[in-house]
Request: fold
Amino acid sequence: MSIRRRTPVTEQTVASSGPQPPNPEPPTEEFSLRPPKRGLILSVLALFFIPFFYMLFVYYPIENDLRRSISIGVAMSLGGLVITVRLIPVAARYLLRRNLFGYDINKRGTSQGSVKVPETLGIVTAIVFLVVAIVLQQCNLTADSEWLVEYNAALACICFMTLLGFVDDVLDIPWRVKLVLPTFASLPLLMAYAGHTSIIIPKPLVPYVGLSVLDLGLIYKVYMIMLVVFCTNSINIHAGLNGLEVGQTVVISFAVLIHNLMQIGASTDFDYKQAHAFSIYIVLPLLTTSLGLLAFNWYPSSVFVGDTYTYFAGMSLAVVGILGHFSETLLLFFLPQVLNFLYSCPQLFHFVPCPRHRLPRFDPQTGLLTGTNDMNLVNLFLRLFGRCTEKALCIRLLIFQA
Ligand code: UD1
Ligand code: MG
Reply:
């Protein structure tokens, strides 16, 4: 396959019908893709990993064993990044051949708006992630590790969710069905979960409740399902701008990574540290493989991520929060998604009409986006802070996330 540098995918290069140029190449050979944004990858890596390594090797007195395991995780995850970047152009060609593409709605009215953009490239990220996570497990967990059951259950959930996301991308499932898909995918974790099911009662309430810790039992598992459903769908509905789905995941993953390291550094309890190390082994490959996808999905997108990616990313973050025992903190990192979800509720539950796409209005003359009355953060930001380009809006939303 030829990847032509700086040549955008155009309608002509991918169309199978319409007027053909003289001596047309076979359709699969004609597909061309912009090169990945290597500068973006390198800047984000430097921005993230310099403070990360400083905390790991200098700031916190962490045991050498754990430092070694985490470093192995970093090395393998960087390998995953390289593989993702190499595989995406190949997969994009195959997906396009099977008619899995979308039109870039925020470029409608320009030549870029009629380009078939390969969709569902999240499948590459998810597969590379799973491979890295499984190999990492072989390196860092022994065969008799008590963590193995939960680690495998977590991977089964992520794998199941990816499958359902892919089914959604191929079959275009109705919205009400989409909402409940993550419930099924969370089953492996629910069955395997052997962690605590209790919550700590805030001190001022202890005299009234008569307990300092309340065991929720089955209700805790219902809470876990709700968390999974929320994480997966909330990333999926905070979307529609080039780079936003992946960008938010990268920011949240980094926050989770640093949070885990801080918890490990501040604790002396072995189990507690293990729980957070466990989170790191999942979130590291999530971060790097997502970065590989971002290099193609950043404005102007040469590929779309599909619901395969949003569901995969949401599920990965949810299992990390549940098994690392910091789901409340995780919700704090999901603050923009919580706000977006609450603001979206009237449309999601059809009290207010909800169109298929709740995207801004694009003005081809100026190249700027204008907010519509649709109830989501993307439109709210445009209404509050004025019209801007798609890229500027995505950056504003990611800064808000950070
Ligand atoms: C969710 C949102 C929908 C939003 C869509 C965009 C809700 C209830 N649903 O729907 O409002 O429009 O995500 O992803 O909030 N697309 C672009 N530019 C991008 C990314 C996607 O134009 O940067 C378009 C493409 O045509 C692509 C399509 O969105 O094919 C993908 O939409 P899909 O992920 O299937 O939408 P939903 O997740 O159902
Ligand atoms: Mg989507």
